Amino acid sequence: MKRERGISELYQNPERGDALVFGRRVGATRRGFLGRAGLAAMGAAVGAGIPFAGHMPAGLIPAAFAEGGQPGDLIAEKDGLRVLNDRPLNAETPPWLLDDAVTPNARHFVRNNGKVSPRAVKGDAAGWTLTVDGAVKKALTLDLAQLKRYPQTTAAVVLECGGNGRASFNPPAKGNQWTIGAVGCAAYTGVRLKDVLADAGVEPAAVYVGYYGEDVHLSGDPTKPVISRGVPIAKALDPDTLIAFEMNGAPLPALHGFPARLVVPGWPASVSGKWLRRLWVRDRVHDGPKMEAPSYRVPKRPVKPGSKVAAEDMAIIERMPVKSVITAPRSGIEAPAGRPIEVRGHAWSGERAIRAVHVSLDFGATWRPCALEPARNRHAWQRWTIGLTPPGPGYYEVWARATDDAGEMQPMVVPGWNPKGYLNNAMHRISLTVKA
Ligand SMILES: Nc1nc2c(c(=O)[nH]1)N[C@H]1C(S)=C(S)[C@@H](COP(=O)(O)O)O[C@H]1N2
Ligand SMILES: [Mo]
Questions:
Q1: Positive or negative CA dihedral for 13, 19, 24, 30?
Q2: Cis peptide before 294 (omega within 30 of 0)
Q3: pLDDT single digits (tens) 132-157
Q4: How many angstroms separate the CA atoms of 191 and 198, rounded?
Q5: What pLDDT, on a 0 to 100 scale, did the predictor assign at position 45?
Q6: Residue of the nearest CA to atom 2 in ligand 1?
Q7: How far apart are CA 227 and CA 274, in angstroms?
Q8: Nearest atom in ligand 1 to 114's CA
Q9: How far is the CA of 131 from the centre of ligand 1 (A)?
Q10: DSSP H or E stretch at residue 434
Q11: What does residue 312 show for φ and ψ, rounded to 5 degrees?
């Protein structure tokens, strides 16, 4: 099949979509009113009859075509991640490996913009310091022992790349073609950024905090910062914003920012600077590499897909939107008839809690509420589960849809196109086949 569009996008021209996905035979039929030949072609393509074919939206690409395979190259420290790029290293976690309540280090996605800091590769913090300067009364230079003297705290935090889901945008957006796995929820131990800032004494003129890391630009030029983003002072002073030095009880792994990183919950993970060496308190919006448009910005108003957007019409991404992932079963499984299938996953929403998760087994015609656990702490994801018994043999899709406590709900298809492909929080879908 020639894939012109992503899995979570509907074909605006369903007939062309059907022709592309199933071949000419389906041709001029309307999905939902398929003739026998069309149904047979679709069933043959997904490998089973489709009991709820009558509810399939026109132009829908079956989830069976999207997921399942491609374990990807293996990175020694990682367990089954899919490598998207090795220079710089970028790897995502297949959804079925995201099942843990707290994501183990070996299963946490990696997003590097440059080369890992040489100090992190050595794993030796001797000689390392963090400088806090700029719009402060007294600049600080802290070594790791001094940093650890502030009150310590541990929290499980969802970090999600702003570009997670980029692969589904059309026209395509350049950059790592993340599907759904540029997200994880590890437990970080560190100190509150606000305590360190209080020690330095933030000046009234302070509006932003920018980070600099010890990673090395791909050009090898040591004077070139790789990425230097930041957050408004209010977010920096949030008690949940951390300077972390442990991930799941171990010193931060080399890939994740040894010896210290920012953990800024609920915002694109790009603001959670790794391999920290400097925090610069700014009297203006920080302007390091990847702060400027179009990086990590989206159009202020919806735009026609594919259009150019002027810098002044873009806004910096702040909190991440409501989202969920189905972690079990693995897409593509075969299940015996008449027995309930346990379906589960996680849901999260930037700075909000999740109010409900619903699943559908019939292409969105009906929805059932899942059991939903509270978050173990604010900014951790929430486990949801449900038992589903498909009514008979055939091809099914499970769709999951989270709603947050402000009433915001995941869209079924890719939301607002934007030039860099950020913030795709379309519902996750998996396929399963029930055998007679
Ligand atoms: N110094 C530095 N910090 C960084 C990056 C980087 O390349 N260099 N990448 C950012 C981006 S874009 C993301 S999505 C997260 C990824 O964190 P992880 O690799 O621990 O999953 O780190 C952020 N912090
Ligand atoms: Mo990212």
A1: negative
A2: yes
A3: 999 999 999 999 999 999 999 999 99
A4: 12
A5: 79
A6: 274
A7: 10
A8: 7
A9: 19
A10: strand 428-435
A11: -70, -10
Measure the CA angle with vertex 82, ends 77 and 84; round to 5°: 110
Residues in Cβ contact with 360 at an 8 Å cutoff, skipping those fewer than 6 apart: 366, 367, 368, 398, 399, 401
Nearest atom in ligand 1 to 117's CA:
1
83 burial (CB, 10 Å; 0-12 / 13-18 / 19+) is: middle
Give the relative orientation of helices 14-22 and 36-46 as an angle to the nearest 10 degrees. 50
Written as one string, the DSSP assignment of 326-368 is: EEES-TTEEEETTS-EEEEEEEEETTB-EEEEEEESSTTSS-E
Which amino acid, residue 350? G
Q: What is the pLDDT of residues 100-116, one digit of tens each?
A: 999 999 999 999 999 99
Higher pLDDT residue, 347 or 2?
347
- Give the distance from CA 420 to its chain's centroid: 15
Domains of the chain as residue ranges with CATH:
1-45 (no CATH), 82-316 (3.90.420.10), 322-435 (2.60.40.650)
Decide: 109 in ligand 1 pocket, CB within 6 A. yes
Radius of gyration of the chain (CA): 23
C-beta of 278 in contact with ligand 1 (< 6 A): no
Q: For residue range 215-238, what is the model confidence (pLDDT) as tens digits?
A: 999 999 999 999 999 999 999 999
Q: Measured in angstroms, how far is the CA atom of residue 269 from the centroid of ligand 1?
A: 6
Average per-residue pLDDT for the chain = 91
**CB-CB contact of 193 with 234 (8 Å):** no
Beta bridge partners of 192: 242
Whether the predicted model's global pTM rises above the 0.85 cut: yes
Residue ID of nearest Cα to ligand 1 atom 20: 256
Residue type, 411: P
Task: Please report the beta strands in 214-328, taking only residues with DSSP state E, as ranges in sequence order.
Answer: 230-232, 242-247, 250-251, 261-263, 276-282, 297-299, 314-316, 322-328
Per-residue pLDDT, 2: 42
- Residue-wise pLDDT for 383-405, tens only, equals 999 999 999 999 999 999 999 99
In the reported structure, the alpha carbon of residue 215 is separated from the centroid of ligand 1 by a whole-number distance in angstroms of 10
Residues 6+ apart with CB under 8 A from 106: 77, 78, 79
